[in-house]
Design brief:
This protein is an alpha+beta fold. The chain folds into three domains: 3-70, 434 Repressor (Amino-terminal Domain); 77-152; 155-198, no CATH class. Helices cover 64% and strands 8% of the residues. Strands 2-1-4-3 form a four-stranded antiparallel beta sheet, with no helix packed on it. Helix 2 (21-28) crosses helix 3 (32-39) and helix 6 packs antiparallel against helix 7 (125-152). Bound molecules: zinc ion. Zinc ion binds next to loops.
């Protein structure tokens, strides 16, 4: 799906209805920065927002995802294509999350095994130190890789304004977290809160 084309289409349709970004955002209970982000092609509306957005713009979801009003004759083919694109994106995100979890777990296990080897094997002191440094490096690279993949999959949702965003690596790493939420500062409203991790 062409995000830039979709963004331009949202902007054109919105202007055609004499709505400002703010007015459209208010109808959807999102921030105007979120609307601006869509219109600049920097992100697609979350699936749960697609119907309300299309209602507000007087278009169909198929039009939205195609980035233009779809003629009745082409409707079915383009709807199927759009559906397949959406499913594919979702599956890629799922794969990212699974790979990230496995990557993190394996590196911790590998790191632990190396530390155990260093502690219990009959080795010269220098070899022991090399092994421990190597173990820490393995764990660090694995956890770092897991974090990169996890951050890339989907978005975090601000609990205050429902803005969707991808945090910087620094914020991501520093944010206290549970399995599905992370404490982050929302770039749209500036408030800090436990942001839910959602897949695109
Ligand atoms: Zn916010």
């Amino acid at each position: 799906m062409n995000q830039v084309k979709i963004g331009k289409f949202i902007a054109e349709t919105r202007r055609g209805l004499n709505l400002t970004q703010r007015q459209l955002a208010d109808r959807l209970s999102v921030s105007d920065k979120t609307v601006s982000k869509w219109e600049c092609g920097k992100g697609l509306p979350e699936v749960s927002l697609m119907l309300p957005l299309c209602d507000a713009l007087g278009i169909t979801v198929n039009d939205l995802l195609s980035g233009e009003r779809v003629a009745a004759a082409d409707y079915r083919a383009s709807a199927e294509q759009n559906m397949i694109h959406l499913l594919r994106e979702r599956r890629e995100n799922r794969t990212f999350l699974a790979v990230s979890a496995i990557c993190g777990a394996l590196s911790v296990i590998a790191g632990g095994a190396l530390v155990a080897l260093a502690a219990f094997a009959d080795l010269p002191a220098a070899a022991r130190i090399v092994l421990i440094v190597f173990a820490v490096a393995v764990a660090a690279v694995g956890i770092g890789g897991a974090a990169v993949l996890d951050r890339r999959a989907g978005h975090f949702e601000c609990p205050h304004c429902k803005n969707l965003f991808v945090p910087t690596m620094k914020e991501y790493v520093q944010g206290a977290h549970t399995f599905t939420k992370r404490r982050l500062r929302c770039p749209a409203c500036g408030k800090t809160g436990m942001c839910r991790h959602t897949l695109k």
